Structures are given as structure tokens and as C-alpha cells.
Amino acid sequence: MAAGGKLWGGRFAEGTDALVEEYTESVSFDKALYAADIAGSKAHAAMLAKVGVLTAEEASSIRGGLDRVLAEIESGAFEFRTDREDVHMNIEARLTELIGEPGKKLHTGRSRNDQVGLDFRIHIAARVRVWRAALARLVGVLAARAREHRGTLLPGCTHFQPAQPVTLAHHLLAYAFMFKRDAERLDDALDRVLISPLGAAALAGTTYPVDPGAVADELGFSGVFSNSMDAVADRDHVLEPLFCASLIMAHLSRLCEEIIIWANPAFGFVRLPDTYATGSSIMPQKKNPDVAELMRGKTGRVYGDLMNLLTTLKGLPLAYNRDLQEDKEPFFDADRTVTLSLACMAGMMEQMGFVPEAMRAALKKGFLNATELADYLVGRGLPFREAHHVTGRAVAFAEKRGAGLEELSLAELREFSPLIAEDVYAVLDYEAAVARRVTPGATGPDSVAAQLGAIADWLK
Ligand code: ARG
User: Among 118, 150, 312, 373, which is 20 to 30 Å from 109 by CA?
Assistant: First the structure.
């Protein structure tokens, strides 16, 4: 082998400049793909034997050798060398050191362009399944906490102003359904991740009688590429999971924001578990929601990972371009972030201390039964616009008094409308307000029970 021993060194008279080697190598990060690379190469070797390009002995020698390489890597004995550029050439070179001649035949009928596409798809599919399991765990935790708090009321907000009473169960289930959708979105993306590009070779296909379907079958993929140029140029299988990760982070970040607000003593709706909070080095009284803050902060870096790769792809001509090597690090970064974030959120929500008394006190301050009074007046024949106005005047009066609507006497209430009678107090009751919301998906008890049932069915 000429030119500094590169696997591609035949036509080179001189070795690579050290600076260029440092600039172009990817093994320092793509070594994370070693298991996928070995699985892909074993499937490729088996296929080459099946179509008669390799003998059965050669293929079995290659597969055995690859298992030895795998064992070396997992024991820590393997030396990843930057002069061997990437994970693919590191493994292939070591294979040939171990088994000799057959190792040199492994790369027949393929290129690193289809090889890296396959490897990354194997890796991404495994990681997406981990995200999906983490989402299911979080949905389970949210549903369990919701089940505990079917009777806990708090102000539901619009414009972040108290609007109408809802149960804490209903509020938590809103997030459960977001994360369920995220999991379903991953399932959908997975269908396209599991398309094998192997057999596209460099870009145009190959003259060897390869059988891409055999490789796909051995690896548990659902299909094979339709166009060899698309197969090696495509990075949708990275971008779609990055978008899914971004949306997961968006949902987590919204929940984080609520936790941060609820933990502020002005609200006091939650007590952060000690295990998921941190103190201040200077203010002894502080218990800070750092986990939620960091998760909100890390959302930006995952969006950045998505934008990073979208920008790399923009304007790239067909087919493979070395720019595409830049697809790995954004994915690895998003993977680490989303995996840890989902685990942290599940742990934090499992242990979160909810404070129903503080939530109830907030109901009264926010006049969350004002809509009920207006609806009551409508029931007595007043047009809604007038009922709205009458109720607004009653709220202004109660506010001046520092009282809730339900604390005004019947005589006081009748000042605003003679249609009001003793039965109004039952209507102003917060529990009753929630119980009256019986429409599908509403906060009423039957709907919340149905939501819990739907989540439980899905988790099965
Ligand atoms: N390390 C490369 C990557 O990740 C592998 C493919 C390189 N192909 C090539 N023809 N240089 O994209």
C-alpha cells in the first residue's frame, strides 16, 4: 500500500499532510458506529457469498474476523487510528490484519458511500427505539400522576391568566398526549430510516450481482433503496429524527416552563423533589429548578442540531459529497440531549410534590367560576353578551371586596341581576364547574377517565 498506507493510496505518491488528516478524519466521533458497521459488513459478506461473489469459506472467515474485531473494540483493546480516517477503514484494516486475504475482499461491490448510509441508519434506528421507550416511560409517569390527581383542581389559563378550573389530571394528560404523538411520529420516521441503501455502491450501482434485499432482510430492515443516487445522497433518515427530537424538546421545554413557574413561591403549586433541585452557593433559602431550566436551555441546542444538518444539505449537488460526514455530530449531540432529558423529566415528574391547597387558593383569586355565572344567567334567559357584562360587574365588585363570587351574599348578587337565585351557589362551585364539562376531551371526570383509558391502551 502506497502513500502513508491509506486504503485508497494506490494513485498517491505522497502521504496526507498532518493538518489535512486532522481536518478530514471522522473516526474520533464516528467510532460510535462500530457495532452498526460490523453488523452491516457481516450482512454484506453473507450476501456476497449468497450471490457467488465470495466463497462460503471467505464469507465465514470475514464474519468470524468481524466478531473478533467487535470483541476487541468492546474490551477496549482496539486502537482507533486517525490515519485510518473513519470507523469503516479502521475496522476493515484491522479485519485484514486478523484474517489476511479474505479481509481484502469484503469491500467488493460496495463503497463507503452506501456503507456509511447503511451504518448510520442501523445506528439511528437503535437510538430512535431508545427514545421511543423513554417517551413511553414518561407518558406512563404522567398518566400515573394524573390518575392520583383526578380530584385536584387548579386554574387553567389562557394568555397565562386564570381562565377556567381544570383538574391537574387533565393538565398532565395534555402533556401525555403530546409525548404519545412524539412516539407515534418516531414510529412513522422509523419506516423510512429502515430502508437499506447498500448496493447503491459509490452512486451508480455496481456490476456485481448484489442482492440488496438479502442485506435488508438480515438486518431487519423493511425495504431497499429505489434509486442509487438518492440512496447515497439522502440524509432524510437523520433529519426526520432530528426534527422529532426537536419537537420532543419543545414539548419538554413547555412543561419545564410550567414547573419553573409552579415552583416559584408566588405560585407554590409544586415542591420540587430534593433529588431534582439544586441550592444556591450564596442564598441559603434557595431551591432552584435547574433541571427544568437546563432542559429548557438544551432545547435550543437540539434545534441547532436540526438547523445544522438542514444547512449542510442545502444546495448539495448529487450524489455523495464529503460535506455529508458532518451529519454525525449533530445527531450524536441531539441523541445525548434528548435521551437524558426524557429520563430526567420522567424521574422528576415521578417525584414531583404537587400542592393541591395552593392550586385551590389560586382558583378563588382568579374568579375561575365567572364563566359559570354567565352560563347560569344564559340558562335563565339572558342573552350571552348581557350575561357576560353582568358577570363582569359582579367580578369587579367582588374584586374590590377581596372576595370570590361564591362569597357574595344572594342579596349582593341580585343587585347585578334579579335572575339570580339561591341555586346559583351550586353552579359557582368549582368541582361542579369541572363536572359539567362532559364533552369529549374536556376536563370533566368521564372524559378524563376516557383519556386515561386511551393512554393505558396505548401503553400496552
Ligand atoms: N467518513 C465518511 C462519511 O461519514 C464515509 C464516506 C466517505 N466516502 C468517501 N468517498 N470519502 O461520510
Answer: 312
